[in-house]
Amino acid sequence: MKYLILLTIGSLMIGCAPKSPDAQQIIDQAIAVSGGEKYLSSTIAFDFRERHYVGKRNGGMYSYERITQDSGQTIHDYVTNSGFRREVNGEIVTVPDSLASRYSASVNSVLYFALLPYGLNDPSVKKEYIGETELEGERYHKLQITFQAEGGGEDFEDVYHYWIHPTTFTIGYLAYSFQENDETSFRFRKAYNPRQVNGITFLDYVNYKPEHPSASLAEAENLFKEGQLQQLSIIELKNITVQ
User: Fold this and answer.
1) Residues 6+ apart with CB under 8 A from 126
2) Considering only CA atoms, which of 135, 121, 203, 198 is closest in space to residue 166?
3) Do 128 and 23 contact (CB within 8 A), yes or no?
4) Is residue 2 in some structural domain?
5) How many domains does the chain fold into?
6) Residue 148 counted as domain residue
């Protein structure tokens, strides 16, 4: 009887143990407060580093565009459901597959970060809750994002960490690993200047790199807390419009 009672108590304690927050629910909330369904039927335009970008979505159809003025020419890159296309002064030009892939990845990367957290519910995304933590006096949910090989793009092996506020569900920080010269390093970004344009929230970021390129993504948070990251750049969106 004594062992039965202990077993029952143990089962009750296990049953009452607090569950970790659900990563999917946190992402859903973050997308909802940042724009929700508006992402699915909007034309979003902005300037970033002397180039003009346009993101158009109509349900499952999309067009991501980059417009560059260079030596009197207008170079217009399109990434759509149909693939990559480049026009120079309004004329379609042939681009080798290797370059088309590189240009597509570059356009996708800028739009991906500009439209966060939209994109974190793409079919290729795998989400994991990895804990609650504190950064600069605020508590955050910490999530890990990885990607399936199919549909995850050329950099599907990259790993992302997101720090999402537990009450506002806004992104406070993010970090990601990447491969460079056969070594893995990371970038850490601190969000600032949140503003809404026609119901969609946009963020700018201070972009940091580790003092030692071999530092790992797992060290990113502690290195930031210890002041051991170097500011690399500012990620700033200008002249944002949403229709």
Assistant:
1) 145, 146, 147, 148
2) 135
3) yes
4) no
5) 1
6) yes
Q: Judge whether 38 lies within some domain.
A: yes
162: which residues sit within 8 A by CB, 6+ positions away? 117, 120, 142, 143, 145, 171, 173, 174
| Model pLDDT, residue 18 | 64
Q: Is residue 4 one of the residues assigned to a domain?
A: no
Residue 111: how many other CB atoms lie within 10 Å:
23
Q: Is the pLDDT of residue 16 over 60?
A: no
CA–CA distance, 145 with 161 (Å, rounded to integer): 6
- The Cα-based distances of 192 to 18, 29, 75, 114, 229 in angstroms read 33, 20, 31, 13, 17
Q: Which domain holds residue 93?
A: 22-242
pLDDT in tens, 154-183: 556 789 999 999 999 999 999 999 877 777
For residue 153, the model assigns a pLDDT of: 54
Place of tokens 């002397």: 50
36 sits in the region (left: phi over 0; alpha: psi -120 to 50; else beta) called left
Enter the pTM of the model: 0.87
Residue type, 21: P
pLDDT, tens digit (0-9, with 9 covering 90-100), for 193-236: 999 999 999 999 999 999 988 899 999 999 999 999 999 999 99
CATH number, domain containing residue 134: 2.50.20
Task: Provide DSSP, 61-95.
Answer: EEEEEEEEEETTEEEEEEEETTEEEEEETTEEE--
